[in-house]
TrEMBL record, chain A:
PANTHER family: TNF RECEPTOR ASSOCIATED FACTOR, TNF RECEPTOR-ASSOCIATED FACTOR 4. GO terms for molecular function: zinc ion binding. Residues 16-55 form the RING-type domain. Residues 285-322, 454-477 are annotated as: Disordered. It comes from Marasmius oreades (fairy-ring Marasmius). InterPro entries: Znf_RING, Znf_RING/FYVE/PHD, Znf_RING_CS, Znf_TRAF. Residues 99-172 form the TRAF-type domain. This is Uncharacterized protein. Keywords: Metal-binding, Zinc, Zinc-finger. Residues 289-301, 467-477 have a biased composition (Polar residues). A zinc finger (TRAF-type) spans 99-172.
From TrEMBL, chain B:
Residues 4-153 form the UBC core domain. This is UBC core domain-containing protein. Residues 132-153 are annotated as: Disordered. InterPro entries: Ub_conjugating_enzyme (IPR050113), UBC (IPR000608), UBQ-conjugating_enzyme/RWD (IPR016135). Keywords: Ubl conjugation pathway. The keyword Kinase does not apply. Residues 132-142 have a biased composition (Basic and acidic residues). Gene3D superfamilies: Ubiquitin Conjugating Enzyme (3.10.110.10).
Amino acid sequence: MATYNYIDPVNANLVCCICRMPFIYPYTTTTCAHTFCRDCITKSLETTSQCPIDRLPLREANLQPAGPIIRSLVDELLVECVNRHLGCMHTCQRQLMPVHISNSCPFESIPCPDQDCKEMIFRKDANQHRDSHKTMLCNKCGEDIQSIGLKAHGSACSGRFTTCEFCESELEHSMQASHLVVCQEITVACTHDIDGCAWEGKRSELSAHLTSCAYHAISGFFAINKARITALEDENAVLKRRVDTLEALLRMAGCELQAAKIALGPWYHYSLNLHPQLHLPTELPFDLQPSSASTSQNGSDEQVGDNPVGPSSVPSEHPDILASFFPNEDLPDLPRLPAPPRVPSISSTTSSQGWESFTVNNTGIRQNLHNAVAPLNLSTTLEGSLEALRQSIVTISTSLDSLGRRNDIALTNETFRINEEIMSLKANMHGLRMQVHAILMDRNAQVIRRVQDSQDGWPAPQRFPGSIQSSGPGTKL
Amino acid sequence: MTSISSRRLSKELMEIQNGGCPVGIDLEKADDFQCWRFSLEVMGESLYQNEKFTLQFRFDQQYPISSPAVQFVQTEGRQIPVHPHVYSNGHICASILGNEWSPVLSVIAVCVTLQSMLASCREKRRPIDNDRYVKHAPDNPKKTQFQYDDDTV
Ligand SMILES: [Zn+2]
Ligand SMILES: [Zn+2]
Ligand SMILES: [Zn+2]
Ligand SMILES: [Zn+2]
Ligand SMILES: [Zn+2]
Ligand SMILES: [Zn+2]
Ligand SMILES: [Zn+2]
């Protein structure tokens, strides 16, 4: 950034504490509201991370451009042209000085617009300097020289006159080139040398040769021929350009076709059948001919009749046992779902056929339990298939939803039933335990009575069959 | 191309020439923007009555972002002041010349600070490590890492 001389005394509030000059790109700290030149404060922060005035911690992130008032106050200060020492007395607002320097200052050094001249010149001298580049001719030898080189040339000048090396007449340097065109003694070729005349001789003898020159006699033919060849060459060039353009177009079309083929996948052949009126040249690498296409069409029709499309097999997931619990509330809805778009082709019949088979299959669900996913119907259009797939997904999600609900209800019911059974089993168990208890009490009472009866003898093992059996390892209770 | 440091120093020089120096301080030499010399006198009651010292400033291209190299020098008839923070080679241990330098400070501000440093001195003696320091001291006092331990003087 240039340093300026300010014309009027500057308010101390507009002076940067670091460089002691009016702010240039003033930046204010957000932490302590001190203002510095952008360059001054960033350089200071590189050394110490604190405000130079109050030593508070300061980082570059705490700087922001000063307010517009400060900026315009310093931008509008009057300054002298930085080329004042060279003679420019111009003064203007500081913000306008760069424009003055780059566009109008007469004392600014600019490079000479001439490519070969490396000189730096004052803008005011530019015209004068440019004149010095203008070429002028030496009046003695006719050489091109520049005015700046005139003095230097004076000693090297080869003199005013020269002698023609063919006719030996004396002539001026400047005339030498024009003389060579008319010199009678210079050796020239026949004017028909392009057409094949091998004659060569002095210019003075040329006219005599022309009367006998065979090529001169048929010069008219040459002219016509030349014109025709030129016309043909022009036409050829035009045609060549057109062929190039067409080849490029063809390559592009080929690439696009390839991309379309890849994108279409298995539907690619079908889209050919869709336009049987398109007669393709036989050498094109298409393996399907329109005649064979119609037969494959019929074949795929039959296939569709045999294999129902996706949605038809979905209801088969319902278990048979629960069927009586739930009326088929959603199944009658399915046929009302929007059918795939009727494509104006034979495929419209096939697709509708597929949907009919779906409604029919509501009765034949059980047979198709393991044939859940139908193959893609390649004989429909891509749009039709996509639409059908979308519908299948809609149907499947609906079915899945209702299936989930049914499962929930079934699970609740089953849990309820099992709980009840467990309760009744528990009650039975309790009754059995009470009975066993009663029997054991009864037996204990009998044993005690028997022991009291035979106080004198050892209790025989066989007298306690119950206790032995219950504690033995081979118990079978 | 005039550097930022010479722009700033020419500004300071102009202020000194127009406004004069504070009492007891005089600019003696400022021929270039590399080295300036001031004469320094302590005014009023002090241990340095009737003594005059020469203070030398050396500036680098980074001034005022980086501090000037300031030291007392021996000139005809003038000695290095005897002071607990001034080494016998003229180097000064003062924090504002080191880590507390700020680009908003100026040559005159440094002169005034050192003047008051001398004025507040109670005991004329050299720093404790004077001999050791002077033996190894670099020519430029800025290359020394001083410990600013004493705030009283
Ligand atoms: Zn601050
Ligand atoms: Zn600044
Ligand atoms: Zn100008
Ligand atoms: Zn030029
Ligand atoms: Zn000449
Ligand atoms: Zn001639
Ligand atoms: Zn001829």
